[in-house]
Design a protein that fits this description.
The chain has 240 residues and is an all-alpha fold. The protein is built from 10 helices and no strands. The chain is globular.
Length: 240
């Protein structure tokens, strides 16, 4: 009975995630676009458009998966610290290799420049609300995505007795699609898809969601720092 309730909570979180990004976000955009103070400050509008859905999701995830979050934390505290460090380090290395390979595949399919998702993040990070976007991108986003894709989707699929490989493939494909579907630039899916495979494999190996969260946070943090530095450096260069 407890397992059924747990799976229902995970299914509910997945449904909330889908509704937030495909229904609520569009409604929120229609509301914000008609506000004068938002039209005068579009960066504030972008902040609210990103922050409100993620705040709803992280609160929902912590409430619905409270028992799993606590249980995984207790399991993590009993693990050897060096073992966890090595797992996360290997995960980070594989994630960057996967991103590089995924980027090469995307280029082979005609991708040029950045995905709309990545370009939007870079713009937000260098706006006047950059610090708040860093919190969203580096901390809240990874926690939400790992609770949805590597905890909820993995566990729900496991209840159907699917193989580990199939579970990782399905969750990674969905993880990739959610990052490119709004922009319609599907040729950029491969870096996200392969990163999903690495994070999925890490969840299978560790049987714990926290290493996935740590790796995801590290990757987003380093990417944000590099983007901010490069943006400021480019500002010092003469325009050709």
């Amino acid at each position: 009975m407890k397992e059924i309730k747990s799976n229902l909570n995970k299914v509910f979180l997945i449904i909330i995630y889908i509704l937030i990004f495909f229904v609520f976000s569009k409604l929120l955009y229609n509301i914000l676009v008609n506000m004068d103070f938002i039209n005068d400050n579009p960066n504030l509008g972008n902040l609210l458009l990103n922050a409100i859905p993620y705040l709803i999701l992280i609160i929902s995830g912590c409430i619905l998966l409270k028992n799993e979050i606590v249980t995984d934390y207790k399991k993590l505290s009993k693990m050897d610290a060096m073992h966890v460090f090595i797992m996360c380090t290997v995960g980070i290395v594989f994630a960057y290799v996967a991103n590089y390979i995924g980027s090469l595949i995307s280029i082979m399919f005609g991708a040029n420049g950045q995905s709309e998702n990545q370009a939007g993040i870079n713009t937000f990070l260098t706006s006047e609300y950059g610090f708040l976007f860093i919190i969203l991108t580096v901390f809240i986003g990874p926690v939400v995505e790992e609770l949805v894709f590597r905890k909820s989707i993995h566990d729900v699929l496991r209840s159907y007795k699917l193989s580990n490989g199939m579970i990782i493939f399905i969750s990674s494909l969905l993880f990739g699609l959610i990052h490119v579907v709004n922009g319609g630039d599907y040729m950029f899916i491969f870096p996200y898809l392969l990163m999903g495979v690495v994070l999925g494999g890490l969840e299978m190996k560790s049987k714990n969601i926290y290493p996935c969260i740590f790796v995801h946070i590290f990757i987003n943090a380093l990417a944000s720092i590099i983007n901010i530095i490069m943006s400021n450096f480019e500002g010092l260069l003469p325009v050709a």
